[in-house]
Amino acid sequence: MALGAFTSIYLAKAGLHPLLAIPAAGVLVSGIGLVFGLPSRRLKELYLLISTLAAQFFFDWFLRTEQMAWFTGGAYAKYVPPLNLEPLDLSYGYPLYVTVAVIATVHFLALANLSRSYIGRALKAVREET
After folding, report:
1. Do 53 and 99 belong to one domain?
2. Tens of pLDDT along the chain (130 residues)?
3. Which end of the chain has fewer CB atoms within 10 angstroms, the N or the C?
């Protein structure tokens, strides 16, 4: 999650609108996850867990090194101004709460519909395959 957050901050500071920077960071980080995930695809049970934890610890260590201070801000971290959509000030309070609640509800409904679709049933079949 830290890699995606720092990537979205970096893209937003580079001039990309924050609402475009967040999904773009998700795509970039998915590619990095794919690099770590492809070698792990044949692992099962405990070994998959170990490889996942190793990737997490690697990125945690990597983002804390001095060479990555330009990206993460180092010990002082990165300052990010609050997300501001012109009619809404999402820096605090009720508008932020309502916005997060609406986004969470939309995602929940989308996942509920996905689980009932053909793709959702296929994902369940893959999960339950032993």
Report:
1. no
2. 678 888 888 888 888 887 888 889 889 888 888 887 787 777 777 887 888 888 888 887 877 777 777 777 766 777 777 776 677 777 778 877 888 898 899 999 998 898 888 888 888 888 887 6
3. C
Q: What phi and psi values does residue 24 have, to the nearest 5 degrees?
A: -65, -40
95 with 89: CB under 8 angstroms?
Answer: yes
Q: The domain containing residue 17 runs over which residues?
A: 1-81
Distance in angstroms (rounded) separating the CA atoms of residues 54 and 40: 11
Residues 51 and 3 in one domain: yes
Q: How many domains, in total, are found in the chain?
A: 2
- Contact of 8 with 22, CB cutoff 8 Å: yes
Based on the domain organization, do 34 and 98 belong to the same domain?
Answer: no
Q: What are phi and psi of 83, to 5 degrees?
A: -65, 130
Are 30 and 22 a contacting pair, CB within 8 Å?
no
- The C-alpha atoms of residue 40 and residue 24 are separated, in whole angstroms, by 25
